[in-house]
Amino acid sequence: MTTISRPSAVVHVPPKSREGAEERRATWLLLGPALVFLGALSVWPFVYLLYASFTSYQLAIPIPIEWVGFKNFSRVITNARFLSSLGITLIFALVAVPLQILIGMGLALLLNGITRGRELYASLFLIPMMVAPIVVGFSWNLFLNPIYGPLNSFLKAIGFEPPAWAQSPDWALPTLVLVDTWQWTPFVMVVLLAGLKSIPSRVYEAARVDGSNRWQTFFHIVLPMLYPYLTVAFVLRFIDSFRVFDIIYILTRGGPGTSTQNLAYYTYDMGFGRFEFGIAGALSIIQLILLTVGTMLILSLAKRRDRAPAAGKALPPTVVSHATQQLQGANS
Amino acid sequence: MASVTLSGVNKWYAGVVHAVQDISFRIEDGEFFGLLGPSGSGKTSVLRMLAGLERPTSGTIAFDDVPVQARSPQERNVAMVFEQNALYPHMTARQNISYPLKIRGLSKGEIETKVADVANMLNIAHLIDRRASQMSGGQQQRVAIARALVRRPNLLCLDEPIAHLDTLLRARLRGELKRLQRSLGTTSVIVTHDPIEAMTMTDRIALMRDGVMQQIGTADEIYNRPVNAFVAQFFGLHSMNVFTVSDVRDTPEFSGQCGGQKVLLPDCVKPHVQADRRIAIGARPSGVSVHKQGQAPRGADMLSLSGRVYVAEQLGDSILVTVQAGETTIQAMTPPSQVFGIDEPVDITIRENALYVFDGDQRTLRFASGQPLPGADRIASFG
Predict the structure, then answer these.
(1) Rounded CA gap, A328 and B339, in Å?
(2) Residues 6 or more apart in contact with residue B127 via CB below 8 angstroms
(3) Residue A314 CB burial class (10 angstroms; 0-12, 13-18, ≥19)
(4) CB distance B370 to B283 below 8 Å
(5) What are the transmembrane regions (chain A) (predicted)?
(6) Is B378 contained in some domain?
(7) CB nearest A202 (choices: B86, B133, B157)
(8) How many domains is chain B partitioned into structurally?
(9) Chain B interface includes A315 (CB < 8 A)
(10) B203 and B308 share a domain?
(11) Is residue B375 part of a domain?
(12) Residues B273, B299 within the same domain
């Protein structure tokens, strides 16, 4: 037998010596600030929110806080305003997100097809995404102003009778969808462009030699290879669409009436408009549950696709699991 | 299945790189044809033009004498096997192989039969439901070959199909591919940078360099009658030794100078010496003998010079000795019984019957293996 020592770095043995104790202390010292920060800004508010949702906490009325069990929840889900805001949230998600995916895919294909100046165009397209949502809200508010806005001046000048956009009951929600799409389509484009870049040119050439035309290549080969990227884009945009608040706050304030009041805005209104912290807490928890269930559903569908041909061997973790991590980050 | 004719084909990239320069040749129906050359020689460009992935800048390509250079790969009914990673990764082997049939609108039953046939032929029936990521490189290439053969193409284009596999597997697939091609009779073109691959698999070989065709012929023809020194050095398991001898004179003995060394030349070289008194000598390592200093035989039928051993490499059944003679290095294949030390002074001899003579610029073969070539002066010099 030889006596060559083997590398032992694989298993980390907890240090027991004095040096070890020092190392442990250093570990806590280094991690401590971050943990405190996380606890104070993320864990504690969540625990407090959970607690508040089961109490009669009202900031404006100095009554003692009482434990009310699920009363807040039952009050919320039987409320017509809740149901209408849930409907608006879902309509928003199911119109805006597919729209963004479609346009984003188109832009990504367009950019992937050009060789000269691709980076320049990509960065130009990214600008809306880099603007703070509140600024986006103000800019569009000016742009779409029915009286002073340049858009309506232009439309009137060429003979149209333009709507009042954000102030019109029929046009307010489409306007918000438009603004959100304007801002977030570039994100979808970037994700899908990365996906397109990951397809080797040989695959396209093989398809050409196999006799596949452009459409066949797109639907049979490119699109299936993009599924993981589409899943990521869809999930992230779906979550974000539930959180849309800034542009509603600036452009419509949930109105006219309650026509653009989504769950996020309704929750804000209950919490900081009426100081009903118990109700607002219950609303937040309900949204969290809805989002979690929704995204789990999407991911399990995506995973089933991924696994489709049963071959026994497990596939390497794909982008889907990456999306799961992102999601967990986004939910907390 | 078809014969393929290229005439005067040129390919320019971006108007600056002349990648393929005025190439003409014919591939017979059912022939296995090799396109050989170092990287950048233009061989892959020729293949891509045959496949229809690229258009020639000028010239014509004809299948069965019908010009096809403006047609798409589909219209030409060509199939191609790429170097690697060209399977559709989201599909199983079965889906990959059936794809070309599916988009041609064949019925499910037909597709199933054809896929099963080709899968059995290539021994991949047990892999048929795996995806690319679940297969080894060799298995993936088998699937790629199956995908190419399943629709019986007019022309099968193979772009270094086995270059990325390990040595043993490569050797096995060489034989398999050759048998497969023979039994199917599909006209096939393989691009390779490995002379052994080209020699072992194909019927005829076209050797290219820097976009220029050097020589077209059977392995035997190219090996034994290389048209120039480049072909001689590139083709074969071991590179041919080629060195230029200058200042060739007849008195006091027939000799010349090579990198500061005196070289005694055999009489057969005499008729080929040009006015500039230069000549290039070629000899394969197997034709070179190495002797201890002072022990070399002498004669008018052999070339001799002296040098020092640079390195001796054991190859098992022989030793490859590299000798430094002035500024020239010469490799010799010697029997394993002969042992030489590094820097040992030695004499080298090459017999007339192992000798090749090129002109002083190494561009044209003048004399090969003991017998003057018929019309040696007229052998095309493509350089």
Answers:
(1) 71
(2) B93, B135, B139, B142, B143
(3) exposed
(4) no
(5) 26-51, 82-111, 123-143, 171-196, 217-239, 277-299
(6) no
(7) B86
(8) 2
(9) yes
(10) no
(11) no
(12) yes
Contacting residues of B for A206, CB less than 8 Å apart? 80, 82, 86-88, 144, 147
Which of B231, B255, B290 finishes a domain? B231
Q: Return the residue in B45, B97, B99, B130 with the most chain A beta carbons within 10 A, the one to mutate for interface testing.
A: B99
Question: Do B82 and B160 share a structural domain?
Answer: yes
Q: How many helices (H) and strands (E) does chain B have?
A: 9, 22
Query: What are residue B13's phi and psi, to 5 degrees?
Result: -105, 125
Indicate if B330 and B211 belong to the same structural domain: no
Q: Which two tokens stand for residue A70?
A: 């699920």
Alpha-carbon distances of A270 from A48, A54, A59, A67, A288, rounded to whole Å: 17, 15, 11, 19, 17
Q: What is the largest CA-CA distance in chain A?
A: 95
What residues in A contact B88, CB-CB < 8 Å?
Answer: 203, 206-207, 220-221, 225
pLDDT of residue A259 exceeding 60, the answer is yes
Place of tokens 């165009």: A121
Residue B383 in domain: no
Task: Report domain A87-273+311-331's class.
Answer: mainly alpha
User: Are residue B12 and residue B155 in the same domain, yes or no?
Assistant: yes
Q: Is the pLDDT of residue A1 over 60?
A: no
Specify whether the CB–CB gap between B200 and B207 falls below 8 A: no
Confirm if A299 and A324 have CB atoms less than 8 A apart.
Answer: yes
Separation of alpha carbons A280 and A264, rounded Å: 10
Residue A209 with chain B: CB contacts under 8 Å: 51-53, 73-74, 78-80, 157
Is B53–A208 a contact, with Cβ atoms under 8 angstroms apart? yes
* pLDDT tens track for B78-122: 999 998 878 999 999 999 999 999 998 899 999 999 999 999 988
Mean pLDDT score across all residues of chain A? 83
What tokens does A284 get?
């937040």
Structural domain boundaries enclosing B118: 4-231
Q: Which two tokens stand for residue A103?
A: 């346009």
For residue B184, the surrounding DSSP H or E stretch is helix B167-184
Residue-level pLDDT at A307: 60
In a domain, B376, yes or no: no
Residue A71 one-letter amino acid: K
Task: Look at residue A90 and tell me whether its pLDDT is greater than 60.
Answer: yes
Q: Does B131 touch chain A (CB under 8 A)?
A: yes
Q: Are residues B184 and B204 in the same domain?
A: yes
Q: Is A317 on the interface with B (CB under 8 A)?
A: no
B87: domain CATH number is 3.40.50.300
Q: Any bridge partners for residue B328, and if so which?
A: B325
Q: Do A209 and B83 lie within an 8 Å CB cutoff?
A: no
Residues B282 and B363 both lie in one domain: yes
Please tell me if residue A223 touches chain B, with a CB cutoff of 8 Å.
no
Whichever domain contains B283, its CATH number is 2.40.50.140
Whether A200 sits inside 8 A of B72 (CB atoms) is no
Biggest CA-to-CA distance, chain B: 84
Same domain? For B202 and B127 the reply is: yes
Identify all chain A residues contacting B144, using CB atoms and an 8 Å cutoff. 206
Residues 6+ apart with CB under 8 A from B310: B322, B323, B324, B329, B342
Orientation of helix B108-121 relative to helix B93-102, angle to 10°: 130
Confidence of residue A15 (pLDDT cuts 50, 70, 90): low
